[in-house]
Amino acid sequence: MKFLHSMVRVSNLEESLTFYIEQLGLIETKRSEYPEAKFTLIYLATAAGEPEVELTYNWGSTEEYTSSRSFGHLAFEVDDIYGLCEKLQSAGVVINRPPRCGHMAFVKSPDDISIELLQKGEALAPKEPWLSMENSGTW
Q1: Measured between alpha carbons, how far is 111 from 10 in angstroms, rounded to an integer?
Q2: Bond preceding residue 129 cis, omega within 30 of 0
Q3: Which domains does the chain show, CATH number per domain?
Q4: Who contacts 44 (Cβ-Cβ below 8 Å, separation ≥6)?
Q5: Of the residues 2, 19, 47, 118, which has the fewest C-beta atoms closer than 10 A?
Q6: What is the DSSP letter of 62?
Q7: How confident is the model at residue 138 (pLDDT cuts 50, 70, 90)?
Q8: Torsion sign (Cα): 53, 56, 62, 65
Q9: pLDDT tens-digit series, residues 105-122
Q10: Would you say residue 67 has pLDDT above 70?
């Protein structure tokens, strides 16, 4: 068995692509348009051939996609958790659980999907301003 992808529904395709590609650094690996059914599938990954996140965008839908604890989260290993969290926070991304320990953080996508960030290798030494930050929400 091989893990292929996780799918999340998105309500604003451009906002979601900005988050996943420009802010998190994923790459688009495949895109499929289905005009007859009025939806788009976009597959993103950390690198070609790696497991993917499938963004499903239903054209013209007014349905509100609410977060659900049963989904859980997407997790990504990162080279510099402090640097990425600083970049995301500067872009207005909600940091639900700051990387106080130098190992793990949770952020929120535009569609309220929890994204877990895990420091590659050993945890970085704890440092400010992350040490004194309160949780902004729950993950």
Answers
A1: 6
A2: yes
A3: 5-58 (3.10.180.10), 72-139 (3.10.180.10)
A4: 20, 21, 26, 27, 28, 29, 52, 53, 54, 55
A5: 2
A6: -
A7: very low
A8: negative
A9: 999 999 888 899 999 999
A10: no
Please count the other Cβ atoms lying within 10 Å of the Cβ belonging to residue 87.
15
Percentage helix, strand, coil for the chain under 3-state DSSP, each rounded to 5: 15, 35, 50
- In this predicted model, what pLDDT tens digit does every residue of 35-51 receive, in sequence order? 999 999 999 999 999 99
The Cα–Cα gap between 100 and 106 comes to 11
Q: Hey, what are 97's tokens?
A: 């659980």
End-to-end CA distance of the chain: 29
Which residues is 110 bridged to in the sheet? none
